């Protein structure tokens, strides 16, 4: 059953249109990928979904409820969290203060302690660095903190914008392993990645976004075929 | 000499409170609220108009009035401007400031209104042969207590955590669930309350309240938040303190040349900003090559 649905979404900045009718769906526990070249509109898509970029048309549904045009602070309370591109952790605050801020978006205030314990289990490094300034963590640790901070809000849908950005291959593998575990726990996970190969081998479906439109939707098997993926990604036979 | 130091600390404390009020609003909105002056003025008028009441009641009235005025300012003038160019917001805040000055003129008249407020503070006492004014000691105690309370609020409470996060990156704070309307309204209310404390100390020292009463201290507090670092609440308070204390000390050191105290203070401000362009507590003090 569909938990999250984006229907014919259009968005842009000023006089420039960036997205021209984008649609996608995700079910509980699914891991969905969105890949595409620079300037395809991937971050704009997430921005429009969470309310930081104005929508110009279309709708976003979460568990059947239309959340289009709602404010970011209300959307997170409905169960949709975003881990933004570049992590955007609060470098001047401690790790625990960053996580405490993440609790602000919880619907169920009674489960705060349990939520913190769960993310500490998933990311033990955050326990070690609990009182350290977040800006002093390594890139991989900061990414883990950004994901943990979104998770403590207990989202039903977790959006991640370029989670591999600036990370070494070993750290990327580690981060993606945690994302699989998060999806297996029942959260719908939608990952935007420019480096397509990172997400295509994990995602049940991978959407290819180019020039503001969904150009193709590939199954895991289709995406494993490099020629098919390249054709969808570049819009030709891959050369 | 001791009195001069106490006066410097006392004036520094008052300017720190004024700068903190400005810094709180700047942190969450990137708005330099020039109309903060009119919050100090309305709180001062309230103290004068209610001087016949017990002092505590009069102070509570002034805190409530200034906080309400700040809230109305945010709802009516600034809410629609969120995310606008900072220059646009600054110009609007000039407009709000001038408009309110004219409203005060219509309501209270252009001539100063005066009344004796907390006359017990205008006296002096002697310690070890040194005469010390009560006002300077009370002001220092008040400033320290309020700054400690603000420190607790900012560093130890959820509201404070949200204020610090919003000052750093408001959009990300909203993505985490920080309610923008509530947070910004809280910042304005607190800045109104701080303006009322500043008003109280000023009215005791100079009970001649006119429509431009809060202007001078606000301009210098604005200088203070730039000197301390606009992106940091600690920086705002520190900058405000430095400006107030330096101005007070210059008035003593320069003797008959005190008419140049402002000029010398701005020389010091320029030197500080040349060395630390982003303010004393800013992390981004290096100059970009052009």
Oligomer: heterodimer
The class by helix and strand makeup of chain B works out as: mainly alpha
Tell me the series of helices and strands of chain A, N- to C-terminal.
Answer: EEEHEEHEHHHHEHEHEEHH
- Strand portion of chain A, in percent? 25-35%
Describe the structure.
The complex is a heterodimer of chains A (239) and B (290). Chain A is α/β, with parallel strands linked by helices and 239 residues long. Helix content of chain A is 37%, strand content 28%. Chain A is built from ten helices and ten strands. A six-stranded mixed beta sheet of chain A has the order 6-7-8-3-9-10, sandwiched between helices. In chain A, strands 2-1-4-5 form a four-stranded antiparallel beta sheet, with helices on one face. In chain A, a hairpin with a 2-residue loop joins strand 1 and strand 2 (16-27). The longest helix of chain A is centred in the C-terminal third of the chain and has 16 residues, at 169-184. Chain B has a single domain (2-275), classed as Orthogonal Bundle (ABC transporter involved in vitamin B12 uptake, BtuC). Helix content of chain B is 71%, strand content 4%. Chain B has a two-stranded antiparallel sheet with strand order 1-4. In chain B, strands 2-3 form a two-stranded antiparallel ribbon. The longest helix of chain B is centred in the first third of the chain and has 28 residues, at 2-29. Chain B is globular, with a radius of gyration of 19 Å. The A-B interface holds A 50, 52, 71-73, 76-77, 81-82, 84, 88, 90-93, 97, 100-102, 104-106, 149-150, 153 and B 158, 161-162, 164-165, 168-169, 171-180. Chain A: Residues 4-236 form the ABC transporter domain. Chain A: GO terms for molecular function: ATP binding; ATP hydrolysis activity; branched-chain amino acid transmembrane transporter activity. Chain A: Keywords: Amino-acid transport, ATP-binding, Nucleotide-binding, Transport. Chain A: One of its GO terms (biological process) is L-amino acid transport.
